[in-house]
Design goal:
The protein has about 450 residues and is α/β, with parallel strands linked by helices. Helices cover about 40% and strands about 15% of the residues. One of its GO terms (molecular function) is UDP-N-acetylglucosamine 2-epimerase activity.
Length: about 450
């Protein structure tokens, strides 16, 4: 999600350092490779702190980030989302009198247990953040309700849409083609159901129910083919192995999909079942029917526009709702319309403009401007919507990081379903981007990304 912003900052001459709390080495490497971001790693934390729990993890990260920020003295710290890293990074930056920019600000469920501990994290991050980038009008209203001044909030859309459309504008990777051919080989006229699950609150009993719901779906819909990329968390893997064994008929279990492959699989899916946050945003932006296997979602826009249904985690609800979507053409058609409640693929442009304006002038642009959805929905066609984007965005600065959402269409490798199935240079100082891949934090790794003219002799 943060990569499009990093790329924009680097393109405009800014020195960027990515500090990454790294659990999933393979997944991190995939993401860096996908966006052509090289890295130099520096281990700042050692020991099995994950076993000590979230409080210990936060404490270790706080001490290390404090030392790091005092040594590097960045001008801006960017935190993304609602991770432990985002929360601790915002506090450490505040203590060191460094500007905090929060990407994906204002998401709320108003339930500290769903999701846990992310709902608490994002509430905390809002307090010290000078630059809050709210992806939707609802998120902006949530920040205003918490007495965050409007002068500190920008309606930006979500950068995950930038990354999604950028990926789909590129040629389909050979590995994605091979996987789609494998799926097509399972059933000559099968429909792909993509399933992802990994959340902490879903572990053990809840996740077993979710797996049972998938099994019931397979029993009741004979042309459904389920693809389940299994998260690397040992608790997720143990549950999947317990419930599915070595596999089931029309069920493909695989390793996590790399960042350049997943969008193409998502694009070909008929139905998505997930407890992920980002997948909700991606699915709606591609016009996919979506079942949210959670007690609550901080992304209700997908439900409001009609693409998503919150099923909870009971096997009965998961199975019954999935079967209805796959067997009721009217319901499927209703849930398969494309909407843009999370932006139009250029959120990183506005975010970069605001950050660089702050770095140059000591303050952001004079008034919050929007590159995201307006009040009243996100259905306007992107080509029309582009005309009303912020006037301060120089078209020459936008650059071809990715096209408009009308991405290149790749010929589907799956059988078509039957009709009845329905500006300013910011190189004067350093931007630090804090990001996390997973919660099991064993290392803090520093990734130095800079243009040739950056640092001017500084080490």
């Amino acid at each position: 999600k943060v990569a499009p912003v990093v790329k924009r900052l680097i393109e405009r001459g800014t020195s960027v350092c990515i500090v990454n709390t790294n659990q999933q080495h393979v997944m991190v490497t995939s993401a860096l490779k996908r966006f052509q971001l090289d890295s130099v790693d520096m281990s700042l934390i050692s020991g099995n702190i994950y076993a000590e729990g979230p409080a210990a993890i936060a404490g270790h990260i706080m001490l290390s980030l404090n030392r790091f920020m005092q040594q590097v003295s960045p001008q801006v710290v960017i935190v993304q989302g609602d991770t432990t890293t985002a929360m601790v990074g915002s506090i450490a930056a505040f203590y060191n009198n460094i500007t905090v920019a929060h990407v994906e600000a204002g998401l709320r469920t108003y339930d500290f247990q769903n999701p846990f501990p992310e709902e608490f994290h994002r509430r905390v991050v809002a307090v010290p953040s000078l630059l809050n980038f709210a992806p939707t009008p609802r998120a902006r209203r949530a920040l205003l309700a918490e007495n965050i001044p409007s002068s500190r909030i920008w309606l930006s859309g979500n950068t995950v849409v930038d990354a999604l459309f950028d990926s789909l504008s590129k040629p389909i990777p050979a590995a994605a083609t091979a996987l789609l051919q494998r799926i097509a080989g399972v059933h000559p006229k099968g429909r792909l159901v993509l399933v992802t699950m990994h959340r902490r609150e879903s572990f053990e009993a809840h996740m077993e129910d979710m797996c049972d719901g998938v099994l019931d779906l397979l029993t009741q819909v004979p042309d459904a083919v389920v693809l389940l990329p299994v998260h690397t968390n040992p608790r997720v893997q143990a549950t999947v192995k317990h419930k599915f064994g070595e596999g089931q008929k029309r069920l493909i279990i695989c390793d996590p999909l790399e960042a350049d492959i997943f969008p193409f699989i998502l694009k070909e899916a008929t139905l998505i079942l997930t407890d992920s946050g980002g997948v909700q945003e991606e699915a709606v932006s591609l016009g996919k029917a979506l079942l949210v296997m959670r007690a609550a979602t901080e992304r209700p826009e997908g439900v409001e526009v009609g693409n998503a249904v919150v099923s909870g985690r009971s096997k009965e609800k998961i199975a019954s709702l999935s079967v209805k979507i796959l067997t009721d053409k009217a319901e499927f058609d209703r849930m398969s319309q494309t909407h843009y409640p999370y932006g139009y693929g250029n959120s990183s442009v506005l975010i970069t403009d605001v950050i660089l304006s702050h770095m140059k002038n000591g303050k952001p642009t004079s008034a919050p401007m929007s590159a995201g959805p307006h009040e009243g929905g996100g259905d306007k066609d992107p080509a029309e919507k582009q005309k009303s984007w912020s006037s301060h965005q120089d078209p020459a600065q936008r650059g071809p990081l990715h096209p408009a959402p009308h991405v290149q269409s790749h010929a589907s490798l799956l059988p078509a379903p039957a009709a009845s199935r329905g500006g300013p240079r910011g190189g004067a100082d350093l931007v630090v981007v804090l990001t996390v891949f997973g919660r099991a934090t064993l290392d803090l790794q520093m990734r130095m990304l800079q243009p040739q003219t950056a640092f001017k002799g500084r080490k």
